[in-house]
Amino acid sequence: MTKTKLIEEIARGTGLSKQETEAVLSGFTETVKEALSNGEPVDIRGFGSFRVQERAARNARNLATGEIMRVEAKKVPVFKPSREFKDRVMTRNRE
């Protein structure tokens, strides 16, 4: 689903205009990005949690040349769905 389609679906379900829905969605995504960049987790009950996870430094191989190179440690955003979210997706996929 694209952002445009998501906005249309939310607008239809809430009765908000597409412009209002886009503003809310943009506000939500910016708030999550800001919280994660400050090291704060974001937990949404029944949906999941967004966190920053540290990836350790490691050696990797360049597949084109076969050369071994060092990949530095880094922090990456991760999303962990709630049990309710996972159960709903699994139930829908069985139908």
Query: Are there runs of 5+ residues with pLDDT below 50, and where?
Result: none
The percentage helix is: 40-55%
Strand order of the largest sheet: 1-2-5
Largest sheet: 3 strands, antiparallel
| Mean pLDDT value | 94
Strand content: 25-35%
Work out the radius of gyration: 19 Å
Instruction: Report the span from N to C terminus.
Output: 20 Å
How many helices? The count is: 3
Order of helices and strands: HHEEEEEH
Based on CA inertia axes, which overall geometry fits? elongated
Q: Structural class of the helices, strands and pairings? A: alpha+beta
Number of strands: 5
What would you say this structure looks like, in words?
This protein is an alpha+beta fold. The chain has 3 helices and 5 strands; from the N terminus they run H-H-E-E-E-E-E-H. A 3-stranded antiparallel sheet has the order 1-2-5. The chain has a two-stranded antiparallel ribbon with strand order 3-4. Helix 1 (3-14) crosses helix 2 (18-37). The mean pLDDT is 94.
Strand and helix map with partners:
Layout lengths: L2 H12 L3 H20 L4 E3 L3 E8 L2 E4 L6 E4 L2 E8 L1 H12 L1
Antiparallel strand pairs: 1-2, 2-5, 3-4
Give a short overview.
The chain has helices at residues 3-14, 18-37, 83-94, and strands at residues 42-44, 48-55, 58-61, 68-71, 74-81. The protein has 95 residues and is α+β, with helices and mostly antiparallel strands. Helix 1 crosses helix 2 (18-37).
Key features of this structure:
single chain, 95 residues, alpha+beta, 3-stranded antiparallel beta sheet, two-stranded antiparallel sheet, 3 helices, elongated
